[in-house]
Structure formats: structure tokens, C-alpha cells
Amino acid sequence: MLREALQRHRPRRLQVPGRRLAAVLVPLYRQGDGYGVVFVKRSQTVLHHRGQIAFPGGGHEAGDASLLHTALRESAEEIGLQPADVQVLGALDDLLTNSSNYLVRPFVGLIPYPYPFTLDRRETATLLEVPLAWLQRHNPPREEERLYEGRLVRSYFFDYHGHLIWGATAKIVKQLLEVLGGRVS
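Now predict its structure.
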């Protein structure tokens, strides 16, 4: 059902001159009767979004064949998730980040679970696994203004037991839940 819902979705594609291209992977896994989502907590040494909860991914490089390739390559680099182990289910809408000037394309993939992740500690401090059903129960996420890097920004956020999922990551989660509708357990 997840694949069908994502295949029916026609992702909105943006073309914004001057924006750097990036891609992320939304790794889903099946555990028992439900699904979960793997997030990364970014290290304090990365250039953008230090210490934030995010999806594995990053900037498109000249050698990447596509943005999907970017998402899979970055996932392998950051958390050791091998591209052959990802069953790509579909893509979500492009979105723009305010602080880092990226145009981000999210891809959704199903991965085996449990998985022998290997974290690149320069980029990833830890992993966070969140049940999809918990995210759905807390959707729509709260929306508020927050101080970020000296300025007030309006953003969605989920607070998963003290782990703040906000900004572009929360927008991606919100859209994923909308696309899936009530099809999660």
C-alpha cells in the first residue's frame, strides 16, 4: 500500500536558478505490524544544520547520475546504508531550504530491519528511529515561530520525546503522511 500511494503521487518539481541541488532519503522499515522512519542527528562538525534531526542526504555532485543517486550515495556515506538494500518506493515534492539555499528532492525507500548501520561520525552523531504511527498521531505537526541563527522563522515541528524534528525535515514528514493518508500502522 505504501508503494501504491507513493506511485500515485505526482511530485511537484521546482526549477529555481541559483539554488544548489540536494536530495535526501526517507528510510522506512517494517517492524512487527507497523513501519518506522530512520532519521539522523547531524554532528556538530557539519557545515549546515549542526545537531539537527534530518534525513540522510546532501548536495548533488558532478559525478551523480541523478538526484536519486545523490540520496543513495549520501545515505551510504553517512550511515552505511547500501543502495542495493534500498527499495525505492517513490518521491515527494521538491522543497526549498531557507538557511542553506538548497532545492531538496526527497525520495522514500523501504529498507531491511534491523540494519547494520555504520555511521560516519564526522557527519552523523546518532540515529533516531520513530514509529510512523506516532508521527501520524501527531500530524499535523505544531507550527510556531522559533529563533534560528539570530532570526525568527516560522516552521513545523514534531517533538519526539525531546528530539525536535523541524524545518525542511518536518515538512517532508508532513507531506509523506498526507500522501500515505491513513495507510500506516
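Helices lie at 2-8, 67-79, 132-137, 167-180.
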